[in-house]
Design goal:
α1 packs antiparallel against α2, α2 runs parallel beside α4 and α3 crosses α4. The chain is mainly α. Helix content is about 65%, strand content about 0%.
């Protein structure tokens, strides 16, 4: 994943304010994951670190365990739920 792509995903996260921007973030997160899978098929990363796009958690159960370990939102909002999902990607 290029630095530009990472910045774009983070930019989507920062822009979440309502249902539409939340959907745009989810679309970007999906694209990021699919790109990561594609890159891993070409050039696999070490099993001891994140994959090509920085995904620390590549199974659904690991993804949600990491999101929960980072913390479920106390005050639910579009922004906090987007952050919850983003942390499923990056939290170890």
């Amino acid at each position: 994943m290029s630095e530009e792509d990472h910045d774009l995903l983070y930019e989507h996260l920062q822009q979440v304010k309502d249902r539409e921007t939340f959907k745009a973030f989810i679309t970007a997160l999906i694209k990021d994951r699919l790109d990561s899978i594609k890159q891993e098929k070409i050039n696999p990363s070490s099993p001891y670190g994140p994959d090509a796009n920085g995904w620390e958690n590549i199974t659904i159960e690991a993804f949600f365990e990491a999101a929960l370990a980072h913390g479920a939102p106390i005050e639910p909002s579009w922004e906090s739920f987007a952050e919850f999902l983003y942390c499923g990607k990056i939290y170890e």
